[in-house]
Amino acid sequence: MGHPVIDRWHEVIKSGDIKALEALLDDEAVFHSPVVFTPQRGRRITTLYLAAAFQVLGGSSFKYLREVIGETDAVLEFQTEIDGITINGIDMIQWNDAGKITDFKVMVRPLQAINKVHEKMGEMLEKYQKAAS
């Protein structure tokens, strides 16, 4: 059986609802990207990165393959395909007693998948930044 935080995460993934995503994140949430060295800190930037990831990774081929869920953390293995490249990765999610995600780390393999994610995430984040200007 899942955990309420992970159940809500799956609802957010299915709906793509950015407001629901924001509500699930703690004010001090930290996002660890597979392609950016520095952790991104705060709800706003974490929302931005995860929303971009929804657009880049969340196509029709995206699926979770397995989940390991504890009391305050989970590891979800995923697979998707972009431009003919199969991407395999994991989402490592931690949450607090209030049921808010405090830490979200994405790890991706193989190298050509990381390069493709880097390219596509860069394009998506640039679009978001232009739209916000």
UniProtKB/TrEMBL annotation:
Fetch the InterPro entries from UniProt.
NTF2-like_dom_sf, SnoaL-like
Identify the stretch annotated as signal peptide in this record. none
Q: Which Pfam families match?
A: SnoaL_2 (PF12680)
- SUPFAM superfamilies per the UniProt record, alphabetical: NTF2-like
Could you tell me which residue ranges the SnoaL-like domain spans? 7-103
Organism domain of life: Bacteria
Q: What is this protein called?
A: SnoaL-like domain-containing protein
Q: Which organism encodes this protein?
A: Sneathiella chinensis
